[in-house]
Amino acid sequence: MGIFKKKSEVQGVDFNALPEHIAIILDGNGRWAKRRGMPRTAGHAVGSENFRKIATYCNDIGIKYLTVYAFSTENWKRPEDEVSTIMSLLEKYILEAIEEVTKKNLRLRFWGRRDNLSKNIIELMEKAEKKSEEMTGMQVNVCLNYGARDEITGAVQKIASGVLDGSIDAASITEETIGENLYSFGAPDPDLLIRPGGEMRLSNFLLWQLAYSEMFFSDKLWPEFDERELDRAIIEYQKRNRRFGGI
Ligand code: IPE
Ligand code: IPE
Ligand code: MG
Question: What is the DSSP string of 72-106?
Answer without folding.
Answer: ETTGGGS-HHHHHHHHHHHHHHHHHHHHHHHHHT-
